C-alpha cells in the first residue's frame, strides 16, 4: 500500500458571483521513503494541492489517504517546512526545535535527545542557547528543518524552502536536507519553481499544467542521478538531458497558456 494516495482531487474556489477551478482530477500515489517534486507554471495550484494533502483545505471532490486513513485523522503525521523559517525570535534555538513536541504533548527525554542529535547532524551543536537573529538565513532554515523532523512526521512537505537563500547556501542545504531525509527514510514532497532543484533532489517529478491545475506528466529521475548527492547530480551528463526534457515540456505548457 502506498503511503499517500490522492484519488480524483478536484477543487474550486467560490465567491458570490464566480467559481474558479484550481485543481482538476488529480490522482497519484507516493511510496514510503520517496522524494517527489511538484513542478509547474505559476497558478497551477501546487500550493493548494499541498494544503489539501496537509488537511488544511478539504477538496471539493476526491480523497486523500495517508497510511490508509483520511488526512484529517493524520494531521499529526505531517511536517511542514516553508520558504520562511517562522522561528520565534524571543525563543532560543533549543526552545524553537522543541516547540512541535511541546504543542503535541510529547516532550519526553528520548524525543529531546533525538531533536538535539538532529541539531548536531545539521552542524548546529553549540548554538542551542542562541536566538534566531544571531544566525544566518541558511542556519535558520536548518533549525526549521530540525523542528519539523523532531516530531518524526511520516510525510514532510517542503514548500519552496530554499528559494529565499543565496545560491551557494541553497546548494549546501539541498545536500544536507537530501542526506538527512534519506538517512531517516523520510517521505517528502517538494514544491518548487526550480527545475534543477527538482531533478537533483527527487525520485519522481510531477509536472502540472495550469488553470485548472492538472497532472500533465510524470518524470522518473534515473537511478544514476538518484544515487548522487544533489550537488553531484547537477554535474552528471544525464542531469542536462533530463533538464532539457522537463524545460521543453514546461515551455510548451506556458506557451499554451499564453495563446
Automatic annotation (TrEMBL):
UniProt-listed Pfam families: ABC_tran
High-level lineage: Bacteria, Bacillati, Bacillota, Bacilli, Bacillales
Keywords: ATP-binding, Nucleotide-binding, Transport
Alphabetical list of PANTHER family matching this protein: ABC TRANSPORTER ATP-BINDING PROTEIN, TAURINE IMPORT ATP-BINDING PROTEIN-RELATED
Gene3D superfamilies, per the entry: P-loop containing nucleotide triphosphate hydrolases
GO MF terms held by the record: ATP binding
Domain annotation ABC transporter: ranges: 4-235
InterPro entries: AAA+_ATPase, ABC_transporter-like_ATP-bd, ABC_transporter-like_CS, ABC_transporter_ATP-bind, P-loop_NTPase
Name this polypeptide is given: ABC transporter ATP-binding protein
SUPFAM superfamilies: P-loop containing nucleoside triphosphate hydrolases (SSF52540)
Native organism: Robertmurraya mangrovi
UniProt entry tagged with the keyword Transport: yes
PROSITE patterns referenced in this protein's UniProt entry, alphabetically: ABC_TRANSPORTER_1, ABC_TRANSPORTER_2
Amino acid at each position: 500500500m502506498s503511503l499517500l494516495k490522492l484519488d480524483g482531487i478536484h477543487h474550486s474556489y467560490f465567491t458570490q458571483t464566480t467559481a474558479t477551478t484550481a485543481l482538476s482530477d488529480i490522482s497519484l500515489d507516493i511510496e514510503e521513503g520517496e522524494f517527489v517534486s511538484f513542478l509547474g507554471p505559476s497558478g497551477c495550484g501546487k500550493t493548494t494541492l499541498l494544503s489539501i494533502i496537509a488537511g488544511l483545505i478539504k477538496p471539493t471532490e476526491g480523497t486523500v489517504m495517508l497510511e490508509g486513513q483520511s488526512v484529517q485523522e493524520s494531521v499529526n503525521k505531517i511536517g511542514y517546512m516553508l520558504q520562511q523559517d517562522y522561528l520565534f525570535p524571543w525563543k532560543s534555538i533549543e526552545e524553537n526545535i522543541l516547540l512541535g513536541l511541546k504543542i503535541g504533548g510529547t516532550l519526553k527525554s528520548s524525543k529531546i535527545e533525538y531533536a538535539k542529535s538532529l541539531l548536531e547532524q545539521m552542524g548546529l551543536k553549540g548554538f542551542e542557547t542562541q536566538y534566531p537573529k544571531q544566525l544566518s538565513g541558511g542556519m535558520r532554515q536548518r533549525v526549521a528543518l530540525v523542528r519539523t523532523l523532531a516530531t518524526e512526521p511520516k510525510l514532510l512537505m517542503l514548500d519552496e524552502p530554499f528559494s529565499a537563500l543565496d545560491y551557494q547556501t541553497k546548494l549546501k542545504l539541498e545536500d544536507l536536507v537530501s542526506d538527512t531525509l534519506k538517512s531517516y527514510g523520510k517521505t517528502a514532497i517538494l514544491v518548487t519553481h526550480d527545475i534543477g532543484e527538482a531533478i537533483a533532489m527527487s525520485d519522481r517529478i510531477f509536472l502540472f499544467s495550469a488553470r485548472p491545475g492538472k497532472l500533465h506528466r510524470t518524470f522518473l529521475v534515473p537511478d544514476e542521478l538518484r544515487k548522487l548527492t544533489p550537488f553531484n547530480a547537477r554535474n552528471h551528463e544525464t542531469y542536462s538531458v533530463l533538464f532539457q526534457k522537463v524545460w521543453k515540456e514546461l515551455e510548451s505548457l506556458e506557451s499554451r497558456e499564453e495563446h
